[in-house]
């Protein structure tokens, strides 16, 4: 159990690296899933386009949503966006930074799927087989063939086992043509994605770095604050439950203390542990008080203005001069 706890704490402390690893694994999974996927074009004019475009669009959309689901910052972003104003204002730039960071990681796997699908060409071939111009493949005789029959024949191009129009149009030539077009779109897509990423990397330093650092700092602060609040609540709940159980057993088995009195050392250890647990309660010892604290934390978070010791004139602390304190400490040490 301790190993799992240590692993969980490591993942929490290295959440950014962990999420980058998750995005890489999802990208590899998308490529492997496409390789294991059995592509079966219906070869019907009514369904070819829907099936081909669906294979090109629906899995990337699923990978995109899965990237949001696996990212722990989504709930933090939604909580920060929906929380009441309270004593702490909400910064829209921080929310935009968090959303863009989540979206960038979630777009990796969909981009890989679309690239692999276009490079393979099966989906594009199934979707646009009925759009092929048969006249560009040479002298084609369409005598006695209606437009509806021609479309039905072209829809069978992706299915070599049922294609029966070899005398009218070369299936191999049409397949090669559509796959070349699909690969061309795939390379264009990769170039656009790479160019967009390059522009984001290159243009961002041109803007004010102070604003970017401020946004990045407060986004990290929101994440760390939430984690520490959860840890503090966990420690408080453990101490609250421990003291509550101890008081229960003390009240029930109080009569046994006279017969089995603990040794002095044991009592000191128990008292020390009790004090440490009592310190973790932070003065909150009732259920209603804890509910009020949790409610106030959600509805009225404290302002980000830390209180410091009151300073007097000339850098004095609490109205006392540092020089006077130093002389008093020297005098006390002599005594």
Automatic annotation (TrEMBL):
Compartments where located: Membrane
Source species taxonomy: Eukaryota, Metazoa, Chordata, Craniata, Vertebrata
Pfam families per record: Ca_hom_mod
KW Ion transport (keyword) present: yes
GO biological process: ATP export
Family: Belongs to the CALHM family.
Keyword Nucleotide-binding: no
Membrane-spanning segments: 21-37, 49-74, 184-203
Bilayer topology: Multi-pass membrane protein
Protein name, UniProt field: Calcium homeostasis modulator 1
GO cellular component: plasma membrane
Species this protein is from: Denticeps clupeoides (denticle herring)
Biased composition (Basic and acidic residues): 263-278
An MF annotation (GO) of this entry: monoatomic cation channel activity
Domain of life: Eukaryota
Chain residue ranges for the region called Disordered: 257-278
UniProt keyword list: Ion channel, Ion transport, Membrane, Transmembrane, Transmembrane helix, Transport
């Amino acid at each position: 159990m301790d190993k799992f706890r240590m692993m969980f704490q490591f993942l929490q402390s290295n959440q950014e690296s962990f999420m980058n690893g998750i995005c890489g694994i999802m990208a590899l999974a998308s490529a492997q899933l496409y390789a294991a996927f059995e592509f079966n074009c219906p070869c019907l004019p009514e369904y070819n386009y829907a099936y081909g475009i669906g294979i090109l669009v629906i899995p990337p959309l699923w990978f995109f949503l899965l990237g949001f689901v696996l990212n722990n910052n989504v709930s933090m972003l939604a909580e920060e966006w929906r929380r009441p104003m309270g004593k702490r204002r909400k910064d829209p730039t921080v929310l935009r930074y968090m959303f863009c960071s989540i979206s960038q990681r979630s777009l990796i796997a969909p981009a890989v799927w679309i690239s692999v699908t276009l490079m393979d060409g099966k989906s594009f071939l199934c979707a646009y087989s009925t759009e092929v111009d048969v006249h560009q493949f040479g002298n084609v005789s369409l005598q006695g063939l209606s437009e509806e029959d021609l479309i039905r024949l072209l829809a069978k191009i992706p299915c070599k086992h049922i294609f029966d129009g070899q005398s009218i149009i070369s299936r191999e030539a049409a397949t090669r043509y559509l796959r070349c077009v699909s690969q061309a779109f795939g390379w264009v897509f990769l170039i656009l994605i790479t160019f967009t990423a390059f522009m984001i990397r290159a243009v961002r330093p041109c803007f004010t770095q102070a604003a970017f650092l401020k946004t990045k700092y407060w986004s990290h602060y929101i994440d760390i604050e939430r984690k520490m609040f959860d840890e503090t609540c966990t420690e408080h709940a453990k101490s609250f439950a421990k003291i509550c159980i101890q008081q229960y057993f003390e009240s029930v088995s109080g009569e046994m203390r006279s017969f089995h009195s603990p040794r002095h050392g044991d009592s000191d250890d128990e008292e020390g542990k009790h004090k440490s647990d009592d310190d973790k309660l932070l003065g909150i010892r009732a259920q209603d008080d804890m509910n009020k604290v949790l409610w106030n934390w959600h509805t009225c978070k404290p302002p980000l203005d830390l209180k410091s010791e009151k300073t007097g004139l000339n850098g004095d602390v609490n109205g006392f001069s540092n020089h006077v304190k130093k002389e008093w400490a020297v005098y006390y040490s002599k005594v």
